[in-house]
Amino acid sequence: EGTVEPQSYEHLGNGDDKEFDIPQVDTPPTLESILNETDDEEESFVLEDPSLLNIDNIDTHSYDTSSLASSDSGDRTHLKRKKKLLDSFSLHGSVVRLSLLKGISAQIVSAAVSAASSLIAVGTSHGLALIFDPNQALRLCLGSTAVGAQYGAISALSINNDCSRLLCGFAKGQITMWDLASGKLLRSITDAHPPGTAILHIKFTDDPTLAICNDSGGSVFELSFKRVMGVRTCESRCLFSGSKGEVCCIEPLHAKTELRDHPITQYSLLAMASLTKILVIGLKPSLKVWMTFPYGRMDPSSVPLLAWHFVAVQNSVNPMLAFCRGDVVHFLLVKRDDSGAIHVTKQKQLHLHYDLINFTWINSRTVVLLDSVEKLHVIDRQTQEELETIEISEVQLVYNSSHFKSLATGGNVSQALALVGEKACYQSISSCGGQIFYLGTKSVHVMMIRSWRERVDHLLKQDCLTEALALAWSFHEGKAKAVVGLSGDANKRKAVIADRMVEILFHYADRTLKKCPDQGKIQVMEQHFQDMVPVTVDYCLLLQRTDLLFSQMYDKLSENSVAKGVFLECLEPYILSDKLMGMTAQVMKDLLLHYQDKNLMEDMEACIVHMDITSLDIQQVVLLCWENHLYDAMIYVYNSGMNDFISPMETFSVFLDEKVVMGNKLLVYISCCLAGRAYPLGDIPEDLVPLVKNQVFEFLIRLHSAEASADEEVYPYVRTLLHFDTREFLNVLALTFEDFKNDKQAVEYQQRIVDILLKVMVENSDFTPSQVGCLFTFLARQLAKPNNTLFVNRTLFDQVLEFLCSPDDDSRHSERQQVLLELLQVGGIVQFEENRLIPMAEKAEFYQICEFMYEREHLYDKIIDCYLRDPVRKEEVFNYIHNILSIPGYSAEEKQSVWQKAMKHIEELLLLSPNKAADLIATHFDDQIEGIIKNLQDMLQISPCVTEQFIELLCHYSPDQVLETLQVLEFYRLEETIQVRLVHGECSSKFGQVLVKDIEDTLVKTIALCQRNSHSLNQQQKSSIFIYGRGKLGEIQGLVLGMLDTFNYEQTLLETTTNLLNHDLHWSLCNLRASITKGLNPKQDYCCICLQQYKRRQEMADEIIVFSCGHLYHSVCLLSKECGIETKGQMRWTCYKCNSSNKGGKLSENFSELKKGNGASLAQVRFMGGSESLLDSQQIQAFDQLCRLYRGTSRLALLTELSRTRGGEKHGLLNVSQGDPALNSVFQNENFQLHLTPPPLTEE
Question: At what angle do helices 769-783 and 794-804 cross, to 10 degrees?
Answer without folding.
Answer: 150
